[in-house]
Design goal:
Helix 9 links the parallel strand 8 and strand 9. The relative contact order is 0.15. The chain is built from 15 helices and 14 strands. By secondary structure, the chain is of the alpha/beta class. The strands form three sheets. The protein has a seven-stranded mixed sheet, with helices on both faces. The chain has a four-stranded mixed sheet with strand order 1-2-3-12. The structure holds pyridoxal-5'-phosphate. Pyridoxal-5'-phosphate binds next to helix 5.
């Protein structure tokens, strides 16, 4: 085989389908978010970021930066090992305690990322629990899908957020057979929210465990930022809550929270936990400061929701087809991969607005979109500039207005 030709050929396939990914070369400026410096070939210019998952700007919050710097001064750069072999730093311990407290659980377990947390927890549970069936929402994130597939457990997919379809599947299994229902709270491409209570009721009725990915909700919902399950008073009904420290908390890392026995089980059998060096102490310290800060500052969440509602309303007023979303995610439908990329390029080149096009396979073909994530740091002027720019681009490219 001509290896190089093979690689190049696979890349050409993506390019011909308009699915090749170009990364925007950005330099974030601490204290200037959502502004950032864009490296455009030889030149640089300031742009406004409209698609970051640093939903609250915590990645630049002085409280978080100070905690991170202090930990670097005290503990240095790396953790120095896996958790078992000299790599458990006191900041890891404090962070896990804080996360358990956030979710009202006995324990929490820290991973290098949210992706690894899902992959490791689901593959370990599915593999080790005898004869386990995993029931998985059709739109679950890649990290959950990979974890379930890797577990080699029997897997059934239920229609997205569909209580009836899930029940129809559950009732085909013996009551005593172990079952795990895996789903997310906020789905990050549409901004819709799962019927968590109804799923928990089914779990009780059919003797199943629940695994809830709150990655796009922790820090953002609930009085203390415990997620949608906190907002809806359901935290004690979830078997495993999974979250990230990389989105609303603005740092990096992932975790699960639940009973002491369950966390100890994954700690003791999960390869993605056991065999990987633990995150730097400074990362744990920064995440700890961020979680603590957001616990106390519900007004940041209120401001975030207000910004999202304002942007949605202004888009609707301008006849821009904002998709239905009950969360902070603001998706705008384009419905064509080439137009979607052009709209994104045009916003960047002519208006210094950065929003990444979202194409297949992240969303179904025909549902290509721009996905805006307003933060408390986006001003009224930022929003008005965005609206005027979108109107211009939509007209210029002749993209469909809202029906
Ligand atoms: C981003 C994401 C993850 C992975 O989290 P990271 O911390 O970025 O690895 C998991 N689940 C969902 C739903 C996500 O969107």
């Amino acid at each position: 085989m001509k290896y190089e030709d093979f690689f190049a050929g696979k890349i050409d396939e993506l390019k011909s389908e308009g699915r090749y990914r170009h990364f925007a070369d950005l330099e974030r400026q601490a204290g200037r978010f959502p502004k950032a410096t864009y490296h455009d070939g030889q030149k640089t210019r300031e742009i406004t970021v409209w698609c970051s998952n640093d939903y609250l700007g915590m990645g630049q919050n002085p409280v978080v930066l100070e905690a991170m710097q202090e930990a670097v001064r005290k503990c240095g750069a790396g953790a120095g090992g896996t958790r078992n072999i000299s790599g458990t730093n006191h900041y890891h311990v404090l962070l896990e305690e804080e996360l358990a407290d956030l979710h009202g659980t006995e324990s929490a377990l820290l991973f290098g990322s949210g992706w690894v947390a899902n992959m490791t927890a689901l593959s370990t549970l599915g593999r080790m629990i005898p004869d386990c069936v995993v029931l998985s929402d059709a739109l679950n994130h890649n990290s959950m899908v990979e974890g379930i597939v890797h577990s080699k457990a029997e897997k059934k997919i239920f229609k997205h957020n569909d209580v009836e379809d899930l029940e129809n599947l559950l009732r085909t299994y013996d009551k005593d057979r172990p079952k795990l229902i895996a789903f997310e709270s906020v789905y990050s491409m549409d901004g819709d929210i799962a019927p968590i209570k109804e799923f928990c009721d089914l779990a009780d009725q059919y003797n199943a465990m629940t695994f809830l990915d709150e990655v796009h909700a922790v820090g953002l919902y609930g009085q203390h930022g415990g997620g949608v399950a906190e907002r809806e008073n359901l935290m004690d009904r979830i078997t495993i809550i999974q979250g990230t420290l990389a989105k609303a908390f603005g740092v990096v890392g992932g975790y699960i929270a639940g009973s002491a026995a369950m966390c100890d089980f994954v700690r003791s059998y999960g390869s993605g936990f056991i065999f990987s060096t633990s995150p730097p102490p400074s990362v744990a310290a920064a995440a700890l400061a961020s979680v603590r800060h957001l616990k106390k500052h519900n007004e940041i969440r209120e401001c975030h929701q207000e910004r999202a509602a304002t942007l949605k309303q202004k888009l609707r007023n301008a006849d821009i087809p904002v998709m239905p979303s009950v969360s902070h995610i603001v998706p705008v439908l384009v419905g064509d991969p080439v137009l979607c990329k052009q709209a994104s390029d045009d916003l960047m080149d002519r208006f210094d607005i950065y929003v990444q096009p979202i194409n297949y396979p992240t969303v179904p073909r025909g549902e290509e979109r721009l996905r805006f994530t307003p933060t408390p740091l986006h001003t009224d002027e930022d929003i008005d500039h965005l609206i005027e720019s979108i109107k211009d681009v939509w007209q210029r490219l002749n993209i469909k207005a809202a029906a």
